[in-house]
C-alpha cells in the first residue's frame, strides 16, 4: 500500500485531505504537533501512522522521515501545515514574523528536502504544496503571511523546473478562505463560516490533483 505524508493532518484541510486520500486507498502518515488531534484522525482512517513532530525542527524532520522510509512505501508528500498572524504590518510581532517564516517556508523546505530524494525517481510520486491565494497577490493586513506564501510559490515553481525530467509531480494549490481552526485565534476574518468547508476543498484538490497549479478561489 502506498503511503502519503500530510503535514498539519490533525485539523482543517490536512485532516480532510487525509480522509480523502484514505478513502482512495492510500496509507497515511499524519504529521503535526498535537498527539490527540492526530490520533483522532487515525481512528477514522485505521490505515495510518502518526508522527508527532514540529516541522520547524530540521534535525527531527530528517530523523523521523528517515525512519518512515524504512517502514513505508512513501509515494507522496503534502506540505499543508501553516500558520497565519494578521494585522497592520507595523504591529506584527517578531515572534509572529519568525513563526510564519519558520513554519510556512522553512518547515516546507525541510520536509521537502527530507522526502524528495527518496521519491523523485518513483513513477506516480508527488509533492503537493498547499499555498493560498495569498501566494498569488498581496493583501491588506496580511503582508508577512503573503510574503511567506509567495516564498512557497517560488520554491514550488523552481522545483517544477528542476525536477522536470523526473517522474515526480510537483504542484501548487492556491485556495481562498476555508472554514477551519486557522481563524480561531484571529479577528482578521469576521465570519469564517461563510468560507468553503475544508472537506469541499479537499475533494476539489483530490479530483484535480494532476494539475501543476490549482486555483480554488473563495465562493
Ligand atoms: N483556512 C484558510 O482560510 C486558508 C486559506 C488558504 C490557505 N490556507 C492554508 O491551508 C493550510 C492548512 O490550514 P488550515 O486552514 O487547515 O488550518 P489549521 O486547521 O490551523 O491547520 C494547520 C495545521 O498545521 C499544523 N501545524 C502548525 N504548525 C506546525 C508545525 N510547526 N509543525 C507541524 N505541524 C504544524 C497544526 O497542528 P498543530 O498545531 O497540532 O501542530 C494544524 O493541524 C495552511 O498552510 C494555511 O496557510 C488556509
Could you give a quick summary of the protein structure above?
This protein has helices at residues 12-23, 35-45, 58-71, 94-119, 143-162, 198-207, and strands at 2-7, 27-32, 48-52, 73-79, 126-130, 169-175, 213-216. With 219 residues, the chain is α/β, with parallel strands linked by helices.
SSE run: EHEHEHEHEHEHE
Alpha carbon gap, first and last residue: 36 Å
Query: How large, in whole angstroms, is the Cα Rg?
Result: 16 Å
The fraction of residues assigned to DSSP E strands is 15-25%
Number of separate helices: 6
CATH-derived topology: Rossmann fold
Strand order of the largest sheet: 3-2-1-4-5-6-7
Q: Which architecture would the CATH scheme give at its second level?
A: 3-Layer(aba) Sandwich
What do we call the CATH homologous superfamily? NAD(P)-binding Rossmann-like Domain
Fraction of residues in H or I helices: 40-55%
Total number of distinct structural domains: 1
Tell me what the structure shows.
With 219 residues, the protein is of the alpha/beta class. Helix content is 42%, strand content 18%. Strands 3-2-1-4-5-6-7 form a 7-stranded parallel β-sheet, with helices on both faces. It is globular. The site of NADP nicotinamide-adenine-dinucleotide phosphate has 31 residues, from helix 1 and helix 4.
Detail the topology: elements first, then pairings.
Blueprint: E1 2-7, H1 12-23, E2 27-32, H2 35-45, E3 48-52, H3 58-71, E4 73-79, H4 94-119, E5 126-130, H5 143-162, E6 169-175, H6 198-207, E7 213-216
Parallel strand pairs: 1-2, 1-4, 2-3, 4-5, 5-6, 6-7
Helix pairs in contact: 1-2, 1-6, 3-4, 4-5
Bound molecules: NADP nicotinamide-adenine-dinucleotide phosphate (NAP).
The site of NADP nicotinamide-adenine-dinucleotide phosphate (NAP) has 31 residues, from helix 1 and helix 4.
Amino acid at each position: 500500500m502506498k503511503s502519503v505524508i500530510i503535514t498539519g493532518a490533525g485539523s482543517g484541510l490536512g485532516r480532510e485531505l487525509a480522509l480523502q486520500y484514505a478513502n482512495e486507498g492510500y496509507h497515511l502518515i499524519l504529521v503535526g504537533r498535537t498527539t490527540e488531534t492526530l490520533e483522532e484522525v487515525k481512528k477514522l482512517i485505521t490505515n495510518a501512522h502518526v508522527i508527532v513532530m514540529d516541522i520547524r525542527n530540521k534535525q527531527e524532520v530528517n530523523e523521523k522521515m528517515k525512519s518512515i522510509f524504512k517502514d513505508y512505501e512513501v509515494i507522496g508528500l503534502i506540505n499543508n501545515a501553516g500558520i497565519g498572524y494578521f494585522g497592520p504590518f507595523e504591529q506584527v510581532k517578531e515572534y509572529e514574523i519568525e513563526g510564519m517564516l519558520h513554519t510556512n517556508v522553512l518547515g516546507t523546505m525541510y520536509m521537502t528536502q527530507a522526502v524528495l530524494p527518496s521519491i523523485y525517481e518513483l513513477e506516480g510520486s508527488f509533492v503537493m504544496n498547499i499555498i493560498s491565494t495569498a501566494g498569488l497577490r498581496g493583501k491588506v493586513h496580511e503582508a508577512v503571511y503573503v510574503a511567506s506564501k509567495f516564498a512557497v510559490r517560488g520554491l514550488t515553481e523552481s522545483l517544477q523546473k528542476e525536477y522536470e525530467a523526473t517522474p515526480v509531480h510537483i504542484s501548487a494549490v492556491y485556495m481562498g478562505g476555508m472554514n477551519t481552526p486557522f481563524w480561531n485565534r484571529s479577528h482578521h476574518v469576521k465570519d469564517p463560516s461563510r468560507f468553503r468547508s475544508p472537506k469541499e476543498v479537499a475533494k476539489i484538490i483530490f479530483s484535480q490533483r494532476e494539475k501543476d497549479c490549482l486555483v480554488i478561489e473563495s465562493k
